[in-house]
Amino acid sequence: MSDALDVLEQVGKWKDAGKGVAIATVITTWGSSPRPVGSQLGVDDTGAMVGSVSGGCIEGAVVQEALAAIKDGKPRMLDFGVTDEQAWDVGLACGGKVQVFVEKVN
Amino acid sequence: MKAETIKALQDARTQRRAVTLATRLSDAAEALVYLDKAEGPLASDAAIVTAARQAMDIGRSETVDIGGQKIFLNVYVPPARLIVVGAVHIAQSLAPMATMLDFDVTVVDPRGAWATANRFPGVKVIQDWADEAFQAMGLDASTAVVTLTHDPKLDDPALEAALKSDVFYVGALGSRRTHAKRKERLMSEAGITEEQFARIHGPIGLNIGAKSPAEIAVSILGQIVEVRARRLEALAAPKVAAA
What we know:
- The complex is a heterodimer of chains A (106) and B (243).
- With 106 residues, chain A is of the alpha+beta class.
- Chain A has helices at 2-16, 59-72, 84-90; strands at residues 21-30, 40-44, 49-51, 76-81, 97-104.
- With 243 residues, chain B is α/β, with parallel strands linked by helices.
């Protein structure tokens, strides 16, 4: 819990400093996945990150969507369904699947 | 997510209050659901509030379908806390072991010679009477209370306060004979009912033939972990049956 709230604390600081900010949250997992449901990644409008939603393999894609969410204000749902083979390629060797919700902080 | 939501979640952590943040995934509308109240645009949906409280009880975040809406329930539960009354030898084994199990540990003892920080490195030590200390800390459903002093002056007020709260575990060190005397005292002097007294695990711990302080600490922690796991299973069970 403190983990997730530490992420939110940094997100709150960015917001207070007048930055555009979005939060990505792992909302569903299937099979083995590196981060549990509820794990969060905060992103500011320069692409700076805090926290994580995977072992580092999908963060790049999530940040792109977070930046888009900061611009248009719309929430989005991202599905990362990786086969074992793809998982190996992107560094997610466990072959887990995750669904990530991305929303702007208002 | 609203900036105010972030502030509210942080306040809940500081106050050790459990809270579930419910988010509707179609439009990011929210509700903050506490045990005793719910706030935000989704708070008027009774089914969402009920599901959020159930998730809070089980301590598990998940996505649920409520009346055709996909709702993500993110549960923020304060970390389990262990309060050890009696800064005694067993406590010196119990405190570090409980810390390894991610308990937030506090040792309470009014006796200055016992309640010292260097006897308990890395653990909160409060030199005070248990009932006074409890009042300042606030006992909640994610707290376990263990009394280890054998001394009624020290143990009884702690047990009385614990039994009148909704802590998930109460355990008291002492033989069967000691425990029987304790029952007489608490029922006649503190107004504890038979049913309330039955919540005390006494003699404390699982029966694993523990002798040394460290072994007794293992037996106590084994019991606390078991009680917590059974409670969570019981809370989760009706939901599994319904699904």
